[in-house]
Every structure is written in C-alpha cells, then in structure tokens.
Amino acid sequence: MIQKWNFEELELTGAYLIDPFFASDERGGLIKDYNIEVFKDHGIEHELKEVFYTISKRGVIRATHFQLIKQQPKLVRCVSGHVYDVIVDLRPDSPTYGQWKGFHLTGDNMKSLYVPAYFGHGYLVIEDSIVSYKAGEVFYGEGDSGIMYNDPDIAIEWPFDMIGGKENLIISEKDKKLMSFKEYGEKVK
C-alpha cells in the first residue's frame, strides 16, 4: 500500500493539515513526514533547525505556547497515542487573528499539523502520547511565552469529556501563570 502526500491548507492561512507519505508491505511500513523539496513544492518554506519530542500522560494540557522573539514554526505529529491539537492565529494584522482550529492527531492517523510563525500551539492529551516537533527555529527560553488554555476571548472548545472531565486535567505551574489573549494583544501593538 502506498499513500502519497496530501497538503490541506486551512482557513487560518499558512497552516496545513498534512497526510505524510506512507508505504507498507508484509514487513511493516515507512512514514515520511518531512521532505524539504516536497514542502517547497506546496509553498511551505520550512528548514529544520531543531527536532524534539514530548512524552505526556492522559489529561495533560499544554496551553497555547509560542515564542515572542525568534518565531518557531513547527511541524507537529503525534507519533503514538492521541492528542487534541489546537492552533491559534496570533498575527495582529491577520483577518483570522484570535481564531483557533482543533484537530485530532493520533499515532494511527499519522496526520501532521504545520504551525506557521506567529501562531500559538497547544494540545490536550486524550491518550498517553509521544508528540514529535520538527521546528524551523531553535527554542529560546527568553522568548518563551503563551496564553492560558481557558482564555475567554479565544474560547477554545477542549474535549474534556474525552479525559473524563476537566477535573482530570494535569497542568504545569508555568501554564497556570500564562498571559491572557488581551495581554498578548497589548504586547504586540
């Protein structure tokens, strides 16, 4: 079986939901989720500068993270497990500023999400998961920032029922202290 690349540009311009190249036979399979030439052919300029993985337990929420300096565009894929992945357009001049989109990324569906510069990114872990990040910029701690997962102005509809309710959330102390969308807007004016 061979599944070819498929790039679906989202309503939040510059973001893509991507089906990778996948080939399988009696031995197993091969997944190719990044190729610089294939991405360029689809209008995505993304050169890898850093690759990392997060390992998360069911119920973990990773709020809307981004870098205030040295933007970090990324290709995100759930290698194993299941996450509800969310992106937020944080480009002040964009017609979709402040809008969000959510996607179920699983080890089984193999879909990747291309998160462009000036977007926030976070997810809710539905099943214990490993998530791969292929970043176009290295992580700079001094620019690390984010917006609260429950910001009322963005109003992300997290599927808390899939983890047995909001009471089962696992959230870091850092994420409990993130700024609001309104505070973000004041910073980038």
Structure, described:
The protein is mostly beta strands and 189 residues long. The protein has a single domain, classed as Jelly Rolls. It is built from three helices and twelve strands. The chain has helices at residues 36-41, 173-176, 181-187; strands spanning 2-3, 6-9, 16-19, 21-25, 28-32, 50-56, 61-67, 74-89, 100-106, 112-115, 119-135, 144-147. Strands 2, 3, 6, 7, 8, 9, 10, 11 and 12 form a nine-stranded antiparallel beta sheet that branches. It has a three-stranded antiparallel beta sheet with strand order 1-4-5, with no helix packed on it. The chain is globular, with a radius of gyration of 16 Å. The N and C termini lie far apart (50 Å). The model has no long low-confidence stretch (mean pLDDT 96).
Question: Secondary-structure map with pairings?
Answer:
Layout: E1 2-3, E2 6-9, E3 16-19, E4 21-25, E5 28-32, H1 36-41, E6 50-56, E7 61-67, E8 74-89, E9 100-106, E10 112-115, E11 119-135, E12 144-147, H2 173-176, H3 181-187
Antiparallel strand pairs: 1-4, 2-3, 3-10, 4-5, 6-11, 7-11, 7-12, 8-9, 8-10, 8-11
